[in-house]
Amino acid sequence: MCKNFIKNWTLDEAKEFFASLGEKPYRARQLFNWLYEINVDSFDEMTNFSKELRARLREEFSLSALSVEERAISRDGTEKYLFRTHDDHFIESVLIKRDGSDEGRLTICISSQVGCAMGCRFCSTARIGFKRNLETAEILDQICQVRKISGIKNDNIVFMGMGEPFLNYDNVMRAAAIMNYSFGFHISVRRITISTCGLLEGIERYIDEKQPYNLAISLNDTIPARRARIMPVEKKNSIEQIAHLLQKKFPSSRNRVTLEYVMRADNIAQEDAIRVKKLFRHGNVKINLIKLNAGAHGFEPPCEEDITLFQKELEIMNVPITRRKSFGEDIDAACGQLSGRRYNPHIHISHKQSPAHSDK
After folding, report:
1. Strand pairing class (113-115; 130-133)
2. What pLDDT, in 10s, does the model give residues 237-275?
């Protein structure tokens, strides 16, 4: 029988537990420091707790929610992790070193679901299908495990791994809040990015709740029929509706919304750039341009000349535009590739079948 995961707790829930044992509220802060700052391997290491308290925790709770199955290190320093869950599912995380060293921005790209139900054609996770949502502990333990194994404390988190975060909204927001605690990971809200393929209900809830984290939306096309062919979400949550919602509700005082645009040979004409500008002309946005890898599910990558023209046309918007570099192509760094082999061992998923990770 699987014990409860102690990393599912919020601070208030930890305080309630300790209060039920007659312990002082400060024990909750001590616990979170052990879990996320010191990143202990066992309850026995929590030396400022009594032996009786440690025994109680050990008896009732599991410290780790995941076990490591594989670790791969790229030539560019990117590290890919495959984790096994308690019920024998698989998820992936990626440690991205922006300049290839331990000194620059250090990003961990984490998963929010086992598999994904959204069916985006260029995504390897889509081939797995949806299995289940991750618990808060499983989201947080990805960071704990990557930090412990790599020996690196990251300063940036992106929810751009397996799954659609807004379909696991409560657990994702709960995990993000814990990441921000000053006595644990202590990651700034400005360094936590939550990416969605474009679920209107989730985006509106996110805005209405005034969530402080960065928001990224996968745009990837401006023609509804063409976008729907690669991203089925377009059929119920159109990009025009998203643009209207952002214009209506997203205040200029908040961080800019990031529009993720995977560039293909057929979606970076001048007319495409003009449509982007028209859709988001009143939006508080920035744009990340990502070149599609060669041979990704039958799509053709664009040539550099067309990319340059497309970017120049977008620059007229006078918003931040970034051309992102891909990382970890030699180790199948795009999420869903290692897991896909576990769920479909007869299928070889080449590292060229979906966009490799970018440092968002």
Report:
1. antiparallel
2. 999 999 999 998 887 657 789 999 999 999 999 999 999
Q: Which H helix or E strand runs over 279?
A: helix 270-279
Q: Residue 51: how many CB atoms within 10 A of its CB?
A: 8
- Does residue 92 have an active-site annotation? yes
Which CATH architecture does the domain made up of 4-62 adopt? Orthogonal Bundle (1.10)
For the domain made up of 66-358, give the CATH fold. Answer: TIM Barrel (3.20.20)
Instruction: Tell me which of 109, 116, 197, 335 is the catalytic residue.
Output: 335
- What are the sequence ranges of the domains in the chain? 4-62, 66-358
Report the predicted TM-score, pTM, of the whole model to 2 decimal places. 0.90
The catalytic position among 92, 260, 313, 329 is: 92
- The Cα 207–Cα 80 span in angstroms is 32
Return the beta strands (E) in 76-210 as ranges.
Answer: 79-85, 90-97, 106-109, 113-115, 130-133, 156-159, 192-196
pLDDT tens-digit series, residues 300-313: 889 999 999 999 99
Residue 8 corresponds to which tokens in the numbers above? 């599912």
Active site residue 123: no
Q: Are 257 and 215 in contact (CB under 8 A)?
A: yes
Strand 357-358, strand 106-109: pairing: unpaired
Give the rounded distance of the alpha carbon of 354 from its chain centre. 16
- In angstroms, the CA 255 to CA 205 distance is 16
Tell me how far CA of residue 121 lies from CA of 82, 92, 220, 357, in angstroms.
22, 19, 12, 16
Task: Write out pLDDT tens, residues 329-349.
Answer: 655 545 555 565 566 655 444
